[in-house]
Amino acid sequence: MKFVFDLDGTICFKGNPLSKGIVHALDGIRAKGHEVIFASARPIRDLLPVLPDHMHHCSMVGGNGAFVAKEKEIIKVTTFDAKTTEAIRSLIEKYQLTYLIDSHWDYTYTGSQKHPIYRNIDPNQLATNVPIDCIEEMVKVVLFPNDNEEQLVQVLHNLPVQVYEHYQEGILDISPLGIDKWKGLQVLGVEEGAYIAFGNDSNDVSMFLHAKEGICIGENEALRSVATMQLHCVEQSIIDKITEFSKIFA
């Protein structure tokens, strides 16, 4: 069986690397012959620092499906088309927005260093924070709307993009239309009903809809509505469920 894990808020907390307990549970899955796949909003660049080195060869879906990696190689990257890229640039200029924009590897970030998202950006300094004019192709965009969220969402809904609104963090997370975690899993050859998914947020809905089991960590209403099971965000409970499922599907 394949086990697919979101990271932040699911098995990774406050931007810290996976705990010893989580790593031990995942190693236990792999020892039983199951495959572990990571599927995150983070680009592949920012997935690596929170994983132990021996898991870097695992298959990964990053950027909510825009990046797909296998055996330490990025095998597919989906970018915004030129017209949409220009529209996003125009929104940034019109509303004087701060932002995080990922390209194939480098990025541009103009937000506050105090924002929670900042600690997750390239912690191992594997890339370069470049000016927006140096970003030739946008892969994933995070906008900080401040008081302009309603206007921005209206405009974005008329563009070929997928928007995830994260109210607690005060961000709009944007990917190319038709790109989501399930699409990324399909690139890896994952089949419907042939995997167990763990997640915590609305960007995990697509992969829950096609999973054999979807375990929602926490209280996200959209995800709970499509989950087969819910767990409180308690690390030991998550570890116990991972271990239990590894035995059930042995």
Automatic annotation (TrEMBL):
InterPro entries membership: HAD-like_sf, HAD-SF_hydro_IIB, HAD_sf
Keywords in alphabetical order: Hydrolase
GO cellular component, one term: cytosol
GO MF term set: magnesium ion binding; phosphatase activity
Top-level taxon of the source organism: Bacteria
The keyword RNA-binding appears for this protein: no
Nucleotidyltransferase listed as a keyword: no
NCBIfam families from the UniProt entry: HAD-SF-IIB
Protein name (Swiss-Prot/TrEMBL): HAD-IIB family hydrolase
Lineage of origin: Bacteria, Bacillati, Bacillota, Bacilli, Bacillales
